[in-house]
Amino acid sequence: xxxxxxxxxxxxxxxxxxxxxxxxxxxxxxxxxxxxxxxxxxxxxxxxxxxxxxxxxxxxxxxxxxxxxxxxxxxxxxxxxxxxxxxxxxxxxxxxxxxxxxxxxxxxxxxxxxxxxxxxxxxxxxxxxxxxxxxxxxxxxxxxxxxxxxxxxxxxxxxxxxxxxxxxxxxxxxxxxxxxxxxxxxxxxxxxxxxxxxxxxxxxxxxxxxxxxxxxxxxxxxxxxxxxxxxxxxxxxxxxxxxxxxxxxxxxxxxxxxxxxxxxxxxxxxxxxxxxxxxxxxxxxxxxxxxxxxxxxxxxxxxxxxxxxxxxxxxxxxxxxxxxxxxxxxxxxxxxxxxxxxxxxxxxxxxxxxxxxxxxxxxxxxxxxxxxxxxxxxxxxxxxxxxxxxxxxxxxxxxxxxxxxxxxxxxxxxxxxxxxxxxxxxxxxxxxxxxxxxxxxxxxxxxxxxxxxxxxxxxxxxxxxxxxxxxxxxxxxxxxxxxxxxxxxxxxxxxxxxxxxxxxxxxxxxxxxxxxxxxxxxxxxxxxxxxxxxxxxxxxxxxxxxxxxxxxxxxxxxxxxxxxxxxxxxxxxxxxxxxxxxxxxxxxxxxxxxxxxxxxxxxxxxxxxxxxxxxxxxxxxxxxxxxxxxxxxxxxxxxxxxxxxxxxxxxxxxxxxxxxxxxxxxxxxxxxxxxxxxxxxxxxxxxxxxxxxxxxxxxxxxxxxxxxxxxxxxxxxxxxx
Amino acid sequence: xxxxxxxxxxxxxxxxxxxxxxxxxxxxxxxxxxxxxxxxxxxxxxxxxxxxxxxxxxxxxxxxxxxxxxxxxxxxxxxx
Lengths: 721, 80
Prior knowledge:
The structure holds 2 protein chains of 2 kinds.
Chain A: H1 3-22, H2 31-50, H3 53-66, H4 72-88, H5 92-105, H6 117-129, H7 160-174, H8 178-191, H9 195-207, H10 211-228, H11 231-247, E1 250-254, E2 263-266, E3 269-271, E4 280-281, E5 285-295, E6 298-308, E7 313-317, H12 330-337, H13 342-348, E8 357-369, E9 373-386, E10 391-404, H14 407-411, E11 417-432, E12 435-446, E13 449-460, E14 467-481, E15 487-505, E16 508-521, E17 532-533, H15 548-554, E18 567-581, E19 584-595, E20 600-612, E21 616-627, E22 637-638, E23 640-641, E24 648-649, E25 663-675, E26 684-698, E27 706-720
Parallel strand pairs in A: 1-7, 17-22
Antiparallel strand pairs in A: 1-4, 2-3, 2-5, 5-6, 8-9, 8-27, 9-10, 10-11, 11-12, 12-13, 13-14, 14-15, 15-16, 16-18, 18-19, 19-20, 20-21, 21-25, 23-24, 25-26, 26-27
Helix pairs in contact in A: 1-2, 1-7, 2-3, 2-4, 3-4, 4-5, 5-6, 7-8, 7-9, 8-9, 9-10, 9-11, 10-11, 12-13
Chain B: H1 2-26, H2 54-63
C-alpha cells in the first residue's frame, strides 16, 4: 500500500483519537494544554501527513519544550506522534521509547486507529516491555483517580455540551458506529458550529455512503475554514470536496414525447420537468424512478429501480406504458390495422369478463339566494350494469328541503314556508346488437305538487359507432294543488326528442338534439295572487322592482289568482360539443328555445376540464341565459269596471312569475373531482366539489330587479367490478 | 294562428337537426378508425352531461323559462 494513501486514511482517525485521548480528563486543561493539542493536530494534518517528518519532529519537540506544565494526558499524544514519526523513519527503538514515554504519562493512552503494522507492533512492544505497561499493571499502584467533574469551559469551545457531543461522535467513529457518529456530530453542530466537527461529520457521512451530505458538509467546512483562516481545515476540506466531486454519481432523464402533464419523482421527490435533461447529483446505491402522465387521453406510468455506483452517470429513458388492460397494446393496434371489418377489430380487443359493474354515488347540495330562498338537497344514486350481457338498472332518490320568505310571499301577507320535496326514479336498459333501449320512470312529491313520469329512448350504433341517432319520448302527469291533499288541476306533458351523436375526429364529439314539448292543463299556481292596478292612473307608472309597500298601497282591492294559458308548446334545439386537448377537455353547449307563449331564449354553457396529474380534474364553469317575456306577461296588470254590468273585467291571462319575464342570467363557478384510488384500480373512489354563483337581472318584474344565488355540492362516488 | 306557430317550431327544430347532421357529415366524421378512439373514451368526453348535479339542473329549470334541447346524448360514439 503506498504511503500517501495510508496517511490519508489515518488523518481523521487520528484527530478522533486525539480528542478521545485528551478530552476525557480536561479538568486541568489550560492554555498550554490547548496549545499542545492544537500543535499536535496541525503537525499531523500538515507535516506528518505530507511526509515532512523532520519538520514534524521539530515542531513537536519545540512544543514539548514549552509544555512543562502541560497535563500528562496532553503530552502523551505528542510522544505517540514522535513514536509514529520515528517508526516511519525506520527508528524502531526510538519509536518504542517514545511509546513507552507516552504510556508512562498516560497509562490509558491508545494508538490512533488504522496505524501501520510496524507502529502497532512497536506499540505492543512498548506496552509489554515498559515499566508501566498496560498489560502488567505494577502491584501497589495507586487506585485510579475518580472521574473528573465536567469542565466549566473548554478552550476553543463556547458550549460544553457541543464539545461533549463532538467527543461522543468521535468515540462512535472509532467504534465503527457511523450512524451514531453522524447523529452526535449533528447535535454538536446544532449547538455550536465548529469546522472540524463539520469536517468530521462529512467523513462519517462519506464512509456511510451519503456522499451528497458529505459534500455539502465538506463545502461548508471549507467556507468556514477559509473564514477562520484555519489552514489545516481549509486544506483538508478542499481535498475532501475535490474527492467527493469525483465520487458523486449523477442521473439524468430522457423525457417522453407528447406527454404534457408528465410528472416525475426520484426517490419520492418531485423532479422539475423542465430540468429533466440536466444532470442531478445523487448518492450511490439503489434508487426508484416513477413517472406518470397521459397521452391521447390514456394514463401511462413508468416505474424503475436503478443502482448507481460512485462516479457514474446514469441516463434513464422515461418510457411510459399503460398498465390498464382496457387500453390498447401495440400488438392489438397491429391486429386492428389488419382488420377487414368491425368483427375482425373486435377479435383484436381484450375480452372483458366483468360480470357486473356497480356504480354508487351520494351528494349533498345546497342553494341560497338573495330572495330568501334556501334549499338543502341530499341525494343518492346507484347503477348496476353487465357489459357482457348488455343490461343496466339504476335508481336515484333525493330530498329538497326548502325554506322561502320571498317578497312574493310577504306581499301576500303569508308566513315563510318550509317544505320537503321528495324525488326518485328508476331506470333500466338493454343493448341488443347495435340497438339500445333505455326506459326510465320518476316520481316527485311535495305538499301541493305531485309529478309522475315515464319515458323510453332508443339509440342505434351506426357506421361503426361513428353516428349514434337517438329518439326518445317522455310523458309526465302532474297534479297541482292548494295545500296537502287538495289537488285542483292537472298538467300533462309529452316530450318528443330526436338527436344524433357524431364523432367528428379522434378528439372531437358533437351531439345535436331537438325537443318538442307539449303541455296540456292548467299549470297556474293556485296560491299565487296577481296584484291589479288602475289602468290609467297607476299601472303605467309602476316601476320595475316596485316595493311590497308601494304595490300594496296603490293596487286595487281585487286580488285574483294567477291564470296561465292551458296549453303550451315548447321547442328547443341544442348542440353539445366536446373536444379533448392534451391534458384538458372543452365542453360547450348551446340551446335555442321558442314556445307558443312567445318566450324565446338562448342558453350557452361552457366547461373546461383540466387534468392535474392522474387523480385531479378541475374545471371552471360558465353559463349565460337570456330570454324575452311571455306574450301575456305584464309588469302591472289592469282591471277595469264594466260600466254596464258593474263587474270587474280581469285580464284573461295574468301572472307575476318572474321566470316568464324578460331576464338575463349569468352563472360562474367551477368544480373539482379527485380520484382517491389509482386510475387503473378495479375499485375506484372519487370526491367531487362544485360551486356556482348565478346572477339574474329582471327587466320587468315586481318587487325585485335582480337576484344572486349561490349553490354547490359535495359528492362521493364509487365504482366496483 | 296557433297551429301555424306550432308547425313553424317543428319545422325549425327539424331543420336544425338536418343542418347539424349535414354540417357534421361534411366535417369528415367517418374517418376515425376504432384504434383512434382512445381519447373519445375519456370520461370527460361523454356525450351525456355528467357534470350538472340534480340540484343544479333543478335550479336551471325553475330559474330559466326555457327547457329541453339536450335531454341526453346518444350514448357516445367510440366507447366500447
